[in-house]
């Protein structure tokens, strides 16, 4: 079967991470890249022989050799680029976060109407670890009751979009609590948010949110806490899922140390730790979940596979997870905004 031809809109940081993953995919390939400035697209495309450089998203979307569009722009531009791509009959892989749940629902309605795939670009859900932890959760820890996530990386470049609320309205919340909320959706699987409290720290110069901590209470008494930001001077990606008969933990839940982008440590296994009873550290059990390739590489394969072989139910599963994640993120954001 022919490979899926993907065009990338945007030539920034994450576009540069995904382009090689697309090129090395078994069922997709990169066909074009667009920038608002042709010269930037040409510089980007020069690393990928045969890839066409285009000025402006509309010209990329209109190309016959583009079956699907990867939207790698700041949040402020995502909906409009994705809307145009879907309207033109192109499948869409869209960067997280969205502007709001309503924004995502406008896009998902259009994708359904056109019979197209719309998927968000969260990497960790594609690692086999996520499926294994979900499958073994009841057996290992009983019913999941509480999830804690802590995600920090040191970052202080005020020229970056993360410090510009016009580009990234939710700042570190959209950038990082997205993963906390996606972990809630994947591992805690609540239905209804009943209560929430959030504390946020803003950058004095830009007013961007640079750190946030919060607690969410869901139906059936499930709870989640999160702590995210750029300000701790260290990278941390901790997750702890507490059930009724044990606890599962990860210390690299967003980007696995083994081959998540930014890390390349073949000697660090990917997996999760199981603990129960009055166990000490020497009794903890590490459950390894190896992967044949990086989680962002798997995301590209799964996106292409969903387009070629996925049924409506499979497509809806992805749409539902994105909508729930964005809905919880919006609740965090409303709580922060309500504090003025
Ligand atoms: N999934 C992940 O693991 C992951 C990781 C990092 C970032 N992200 C997300 O990806 C998004 C982009 O982040 P980034 O770090 O790649 O940012 P970035 O380095 O600033 O790149 C964004 C690119 O989008 C293009 N762009 C900027 N403004 C635009 C506009 N108004 N309309 C159309 N295109 C525009 C620019 O390319 P041109 O100048 O060439 O047009 C720019 O290089 C963010 O929302 C971020 O949260 C996701």
TrEMBL record:
Domain Gfo/Idh/MocA-like oxidoreductase N-terminal: 4-119
GO molecular function: nucleotide binding
Alphabetized Pfam families for the sequence: GFO_IDH_MocA, GFO_IDH_MocA_C3
Gene3D superfamilies: Dihydrodipicolinate Reductase, domain 2, NAD(P)-binding Rossmann-like Domain
Domain GFO/IDH/MocA-like oxidoreductase: 140-248
Membrane-traversing stretches: none
Domain of life of the organism encoding this protein: Bacteria
InterPro entries reported in the protein's UniProt record: Gfo/Idh/MocA-like_OxRdtase_N, GFO_IDH_MocA-like_dom, NAD(P)-bd_dom_sf
Protein name according to UniProt: Gfo/Idh/MocA family oxidoreductase
Organism: Phyllobacterium sophorae
């Amino acid at each position: 079967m022919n490979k899926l031809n993907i065009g990338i809109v945007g030539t920034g940081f994450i576009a540069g991470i995904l382009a090689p993953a697309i090129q090395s995919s078994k069922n997709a390939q990169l066909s074009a890249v667009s920038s608002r400035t042709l010269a930037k697209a040409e510089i980007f495309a020069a690393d990928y022989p045969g890839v066409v450089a285009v000025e402006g998203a509309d010209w990329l979307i209109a190309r016959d050799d583009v079956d699907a569009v990867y939207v790698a722009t700041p949040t402020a531009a995502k909906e409009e680029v994705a809307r145009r791509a879907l309207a033109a009959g192109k499948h869409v892989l869209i960067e997280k976060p969205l502007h709001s749940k309503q924004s995502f629902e406008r896009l998902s309605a259009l994708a359904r109407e056109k019979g197209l795939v719309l998927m968000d670009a969260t990497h960790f859900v594609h690692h086999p670890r996520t499926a294994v932890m979900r499958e073994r959760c009841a057996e290992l820890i009983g019913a999941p009751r509480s999830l804690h996530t802590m995600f920090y990386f040191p970052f202080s470049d005020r020229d970056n979009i993360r410090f510009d609320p016009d580009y990234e309205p939710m700042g570190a919340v959209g950038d990082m609590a997205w993963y906390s909320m996606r972990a809630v959706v994947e591992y805690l699987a609540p239905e209804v948010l009943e209560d929430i409290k959030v504390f946020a720290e803003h950058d004095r110069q830009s007013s961007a949110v640079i750190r946030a901590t919060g607690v969410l209470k869901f139906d059936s008494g499930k709870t989640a806490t999160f702590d995210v930001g750029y300000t701790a001077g260290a990278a941390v990606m901790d997750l702890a899922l507490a059930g009724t008969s044990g606890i599962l933990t990860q210390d690299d839940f967003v980007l696995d140390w083994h081959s998540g982008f930014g890390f390349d440590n073949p000697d660090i296994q990917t997996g999760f730790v199981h603990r129960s009873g009055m166990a000490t550290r020497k009794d903890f059990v590490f459950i390894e979940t190896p992967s044949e390739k990086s989680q962002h590489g798997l995301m590209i394969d799964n996106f292409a596979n969903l387009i070629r072989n996925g049924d409506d139910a499979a497509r809806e599963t992805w749409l539902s997870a994105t909508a729930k994640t964005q809905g919880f993120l919006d609740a965090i954001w409303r709580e922060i905004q309500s504090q003025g």
